[in-house]
């Protein structure tokens, strides 16, 4: 009897493989991986092609229809198991987006160079499912009973199957359950196929996603400790093969918007994430300390062009920016930044209750800049306090360089003397200090190394021997932003911009 069951299983698997190969061949031959007329140069996009995990079929059909109705762009959905789809897109190297039932497949696609941005949609976990009247199956151990016919997702095709195998291997149940499935049950290519077999009674039980259960009225779910540990994150990613990345990102934002696609996902039983608010062309407000400007401008331009969004970047001294932020909060006004990159952690810390924890991106030295040839012979901080030396510094209430300079001079025990005799000018940013020494109206200024590099034809640089002579630049996303995920993707773009920061004199700190 077992030999007959195995023979039937192998026959079914062989036929299924032939069907899959034939379907994939048609897919590649027909060129349906992308039928848009857009070439990324502004022409109208006619369609987008999405590799879509089968378990997402019900919400994605509704979301795609809503998107087509609103924007006139057809969304073609290719359904299958997450692993099967990943294999298809690896071979075809076509298509615009990939929606996987588990973020592990998104990571694989990214590691293989197939995918760039990804947006979170929902959370799921595997559960045992039986028909409503079944009262005998109550645990993972039940699935190993020879009296129970079990359907599972194929671990080499479906995300739920891969997750089930990993969890039950960890708990020590997989070997017995796999044997039972092989002899009396069935492995299915998608989670919907597993649920369908249980629904029609061809098997007694199976393991599916908790979100899939909501699509079947006659089934009930059973949570178990072994499977509860396998929560998966549903994500949609933009493929590098897309011929119009901006259009693909536009659709991905629609799917992941809390007031668009995620409404449908929640209605169909998914536990959705807190997505961004929908906007056809969102505008991020980005407050950035002035020291970051040279490095940030090309990064922001790249991000705007790829995402099809606007970034309203406000550069100023961080003291000024923080005063603006506090004023907006106190008056319940508009214009609070979605993202903030301070000149130093000092100023992020003063508004930390308004932002996510910051991530250090870069750092730069604080240096003394003197007139070309150093006519005053300045070699250290203490030389700045000599009689007759005219010094310009940042204003501590308005900019980070002012705060950090004051700290340096206090450490050297010369701040009060300099304040009374040597400090002739205080400015609201580091960049504004350099003209005074370049034109000779000051003998020295204390500024950022990155600003000084742009004036080497007019000034000389004197390094400061102190551990305090540096500024560390953190990036953070506002807690109240309607576009948190868009802000995180801006950070992702920034995190790939090491060369841009180093080219203007920063030391790169991400990942170090």
Care to describe what's here?
It is a single chain. It contains 20 helices and 21 strands. Helix 2 (57-71) runs antiparallel to helix 11 (261-267). The protein has 512 residues and is α/β, with parallel strands linked by helices. Strands 12, 13, 14, 15, 16, 17, 18, 19, 20 and 21 form a 10-stranded mixed beta sheet that branches. The chain is elongated and about 95 Å long. The protein has 3 domains: 31-123 and 232-272, D-Maltodextrin-Binding Protein, domain 2, CATH 3.40.190.10; 126-228, Periplasmic binding protein-like II (D-Maltodextrin-Binding Protein, domain 2, 3-Layer(aba) Sandwich); 281-512, 3-Layer(aba) Sandwich (D-Maltodextrin-Binding Protein, domain 2).
List the helices and strands and how they pair.
Layout lengths: L1 H29 L16 E7 L3 H15 L2 E7 L1 H11 L4 E4 L2 H9 L3 E10 L1 E6 L18 E4 L5 H13 L2 H11 L1 E3 L2 H10 L4 E5 H4 L5 E4 L2 H4 L3 E8 L5 H11 L5 H7 L3 E2 L10 E7 L3 H15 L2 E7 L1 H14 L7 E3 L3 H5 L9 E13 L19 E4 L5 H12 L3 H7 L1 E5 L6 H5 L5 E5 H4 L6 E5 L6 E8 L6 H12 L2 H6 L3 E2 L4
Parallel strand pairs: 1-2, 1-3, 6-7, 6-8, 12-13, 12-14, 16-17, 16-18
Antiparallel strand pairs: 3-10, 4-10, 4-11, 5-8, 5-9, 14-20, 15-18, 15-19, 15-20, 15-21
Helix pairs in contact: 2-11
